[in-house]
Automatic annotation (TrEMBL):
Pfam families: Fumble (PF03630). GO terms for cellular component: cytosol. SUPFAM superfamilies: Actin-like ATPase domain. GO terms for molecular function: ATP binding; pantothenate kinase activity. Keywords: ATP-binding, Coenzyme A biosynthesis, Kinase, Nucleotide-binding, Transferase. This is Type II pantothenate kinase. It comes from Prevotella communis. NCBIfam families: PRK13317.1. InterPro entries: ATPase_NBD, Type_II_PanK.
Length: 278
């Protein structure tokens, strides 16, 4: 059996993974001017870096918004397309080991996919994500470079940006500790340092996504959330989500290959399709 290639062609980046014998092989991502260039560039680099020949590839599985631009077999290899939300669910389930959870796909925007065994359903989304972070950073910090934004944020103080419960009350409120956020950006001043602004933007995006995810699970009994996508690489995830866990008695999980879960799910869909036709 050859290697299965899963490719997630997104708005800004393309992620590619190999799947062989149930194991994820050498995930990579690249950025290019357009989705077609990005896809073929990622595929070529993957083959080169891993010394894989075309004849060794059994199947290519495409997903993501950019997959719509591809209507022919990639390099003559059998190629199929996978619904992005199904790929999200399959990849997150595989990487987290959880059969029942809500997958929070944090890309340019954010989507919520509910998984309950083999029942994988898109249940909604949020127009806040990496695109929001970049757009606000361009306007407020005059940069869209994520490494620079992260570097600034690491030196920021969120107490200078967000209004906390401790700022408005001398005692914790019912269910709300003193360090809980009362209002995002409410304390920001016109001359706030870039470091504080950068941290404020990141915390606002991550906290908004987390809160919306929790609301999406109301009445479902689900307490587990699997975070996937590029924003999982932000170090502030390790601060924002544990706080939300304590506040709402839920669990946020970031798998090892969280950034590549959708591409992994696309590759997994091939085996699932084969089993369903037997």
């Amino acid at each position: 059996m050859g290697i299965i290639i899963g490719i997630d062609v997104g708005i800004s980046t393309t992620k590619i993974v190999g799947l062989k014998n149930g194991r994820v092989v050498s995930p990579i991502r690249i950025t290019a001017a357009d989705q077609v260039t990005s896809l073929y560039g990622a595929f070529g680099r993957y083959l080169h870096d891993n010394k894989v020949e075309l004849k060794d590839v059994e199947q290519v599985m495409l997903t993501g918004v950019g997959a719509a631009y591809i209507d022919e077999p990639v390099y003559g290899i059998p190629t199929q397309k996978v619904d992005e939300f199904i790929a999200d669910g399959l990849g997150a389930r595989f990487e987290s080991g959880l059969s029942k959870a809500i997958v929070v796909s944090m890309g340019t925007g954010t989507s919520f996919v509910q998984c309950d065994g083999d029942d994988i359903r898109h249940i909604g989304g949020l127009g806040i994500g990496g695109g929001t972070l970049q757009g606000l950073s361009r306007v407020m910090l005059n940069t869209r470079d994520q490494k620079q934004i992260q570097s600034l944020a690491m030196q920021g103080d969120i107490h200078n940006i967000n209004l906390l419960i401790g700022d408005i009350s001398t005692h914790p409120l019912p269910g709300l500790p003193m360090n809980a956020t009362a209002s995002l950006f409410s304390k920001a001043q016109y001359d706030a340092p870039k470091e504080d602004i950068a941290l404020g933007i990141i915390v606002m995006v991550l906290q908004s996504i987390g809160s919306a995810a929790i609301l999406s699970a109301l009445n479902s009994g689900i307490k587990d959330f699997v975070l996937i996508g590029n924003l999982t690489l932000l170090p502030q995830c390790k601060e924002v989500y544990p706080m939300l866990e304590k506040l709402y008695q839920v669990h946020f999980h970031i798998p090892k290959f969280a950034e590549f879960c959708t591409a992994i799910g696309a590759a997994l869909a091939y085996h699932q399709n084969q089993e369903s036709t037997r």
